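Risk register update: the risk of archive-format incompatibility is retired. Evidence:
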Amino acid sequence: MNNIWIFGDSAGIDFNIPNNPVPIFSSMDGRGSCVSISDTSGQLQFYSYTNGNFRTEIRNALGDTMQNAELISGKNFYNTLTIVPFPNSNSKFYVFLHAFSYGLFYCTIDMALDGGLGGVDKKFIGINNDEMADCLTAIKHGNGRDWWLIAKLSNQIPPNRLNKFFVYLITPDSIHAPIVQDFNDARDGDFQKLIFHPSFDKFMQINTAGYMSEFDFDRCTGAITLNRNIFPEQLSNFSRFFWEGAYSPNGDIFYVSTTEFVNQDTAYLIQYNLLDTNIALSADTLDAFVNPIGTGAVRLAPDGKVYFSRAYQCNAFPSCAPYPDSVRNVYNENLSVINQPDSLGAACDYQPFSFYLGGKRSYYGLPNNPNYELGPLVGSACDTITSVGLEPSKTNFSFFLYPNPAFNQATLNIQTLKPNKKATLSIFNNIGALLLQKEITLQTQSIDVEDLPAGIYYIQIQTELGSSTEKLIKF
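Archived output:
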């Protein structure tokens, strides 16, 4: 569901073909915040972004403004949007966003509207009236069904060193009141970022005052605990201006971009070895660049590589958003790529401006998409939801699945299905979302599972005798 990225000036990337991402085109034109979501087959469902007029656009898969999506205000920063599926639904979604001035809001999307292209059925519903920082993120609950939404305070009035987190639980029936935690060790400014570790039990927080700390996150309770501080926040003599970051796939390395700020006209892309006894001293500068090349987002992509966007600032930030058509160059028509991000130093194979966007252009932002494929925290106290009412069951008929577990293909045998009679085959994932439904007429039927991620699935057969369900494990 993170297979399609939409960003920048009409740019996008399709990651559906392993090891061969391809540039695609979109209707987006925004310098910062953007999100996109695909269905289980990897096809784009919709995307959202905030443009230079402080308006949040929600567009369908055709690139048209979604039904009833007009006149939604939004803050034009860089990580102020995220999409969260409704728990127990494969057709309804939340779009969470920051308002232009103050507050955290959401719209709801129903993909059944407008002939399947989707529409907004509720919009601009407020859940927090505070000013929010530029680091909205979401992660699936340890039960594999619900979600956590994490927001941060932005308070520009001193004293503002609260480092305040708001953690919202999203369940099938509600968005619950937030869990609020203060750590009192960093300012609550606009430009903070939260980046989840590939294990999803911790995240890195960075900000433009040079703060970098790793926090533990409990997916069962939503509790946040400070694990280690790598760089304390600078209170004077500013020299570190952390902007965006990404973990390596194995989680042992952290990549961070800095920005030109205050007394520093050079921005950097830096690699840190998180296994080093002194992480701060392990810094390896991979790239350095000066205005008019602006720093951008750093993202771990579905292909296991790290992508880095830049903007071309035309020496007058941010007047180049939107770009004049004449402003086209190697800096904004390509992304930089770290091809081997699990390796240190030159072995990481950092290649600046190496992914061509097909004539479209990047700005500062890349999609702020959570991990939609994340499953339950197996064996934890909250791993209590396995099938959402789809436990293996039999009425007055049964069927067999073999091999089980399966790798590429399973065979279904319904001994009681009479000749010329029809049955309905349905496949559900482990949170009850319907993945496939079709009619079958044969007692023995092959089921192709090659493209399904490893996990637990439920095969349900409906006949004139009733329904029966069996569990299928995909390796």
